[in-house]
Design a protein that fits this description.
Strand content: 25-35%
Shape: globular
Number of helices: 11
Number of strands: 17
Largest sheet: 7 strands, mixed
Bound molecules: NADP nicotinamide-adenine-dinucleotide phosphate, zinc ion
Structural class: alpha/beta
Distance between the termini: 20 Å
Helix content: 10-25%
Radius of gyration: 20 Å
Amino acid sequence: MSKSKGYAAATAKAPLAPYEFERRETREHDVDIDIKYCGICHSDIHQARNEWSDYQEECIFPMVPGHEIAGVVSAVGKKVTKYKAGDKVGVGCYVDSCRTCLECRQGLEQYCTVGTIWTYNGRDKQGVPTYGGYSDRIVVDENYVLRMPENLPLDACAPLLCAGITLYSPLKHWGAGTGKKVAIVGLGGLGHMGVKIAHTLGAEVTVLSQSLKKQADGQRLGADRYYATSDPDTFTKLAGHFDLVINTVSAQIDWKQYLNLLRVDGAMVVVGLPEKDIPVAAFSLTARRRSLAGSQIGGIRETQEMLDFCSKHKIACDIEVVPIQKVNEAYERVLKSDVRYRFVIDMASLQ
Ligand code: NAP
Ligand code: ZN
Ligand code: ZN
């Protein structure tokens, strides 16, 4: 075991504070990574505050959150072939999976039927708790490490590892592209990446935000249209308009109103994860043969494909870099939707 330091929540709802812990020794297939930056995902807040207790068997404290990890390889195990010291690498929401189930073999490790091993608030194959990226270093098997774009700033690419892939995967799966009308609900960390990626894929992109406050930003990011969901006319004007609606909202919404925005055969894909079950009327779906679906991050292969796509099209995240000492303040600002559009922790502040 070797020492690591970071910030942890000691209990649910406790503010994050400095914390020292052990990481495993570098094994044959492991990559030892010096973490340079880590994005703050809304999921970090849900987890550090144990807001998903209805859906998770356990919540492990102290918890070091962080699954948008970007850094530089400091050492590798003797059987590692993919990476070497000095490489710019990333780690997303999970660090291992069973590797043998059908889903793992298909590159859908995020849906591993035995159990995906989450980057934090999880347990590794030995049952040891995992600790995330709000820390100085992490040790990860090379098969779960990603190669970061060389041509883009590392800090602005960190959030691609969750926010980027969480939108890229459903946009690709549901065929967003030329001739498709796509709505992104919520212009936060996930949403702003959805706008950039859907626009680059050639779709007509509409942002549905609570207000028009961020309209100029939305258009700059690539939105063709922008509407406030606080205005009831929005739901009349856009009824039956969309092929695909991706909902990134972390809270409850009026599902009936949003489903009614879909045309025949349209799909609404849920990526936002509120604390409680969602109420949906059967008629909202049957009326136009609509689908309601969900999507969770992406597999390792697809995450690398997304990073390469972002590199090719020069897409990174719009970020506000903060020192780790400001993490609790950043959480409060995320909760108020006061973030343009992702906080990224500069890990140099941990020294
Ligand atoms: P975020 O930055 O807080 O963005 C969420 C956006 O939703 C806000 O910016 C806001 O956009 C809108 N919103 C917030 N509260 C709202 C409310 N009460 N009513 C209507 N709209 C509201 O969060 P994020 O990091 O993008 O994450 C969003 C959600 O996705 C979280 O629940 C997170 O846990 C989940 N998530 C899921 C996956 C997955 O794999 N499925 C991956 C990562 C995150 P406007 O200001 O534009 O209205
Ligand atoms: Zn996330
Ligand atoms: Zn598996």
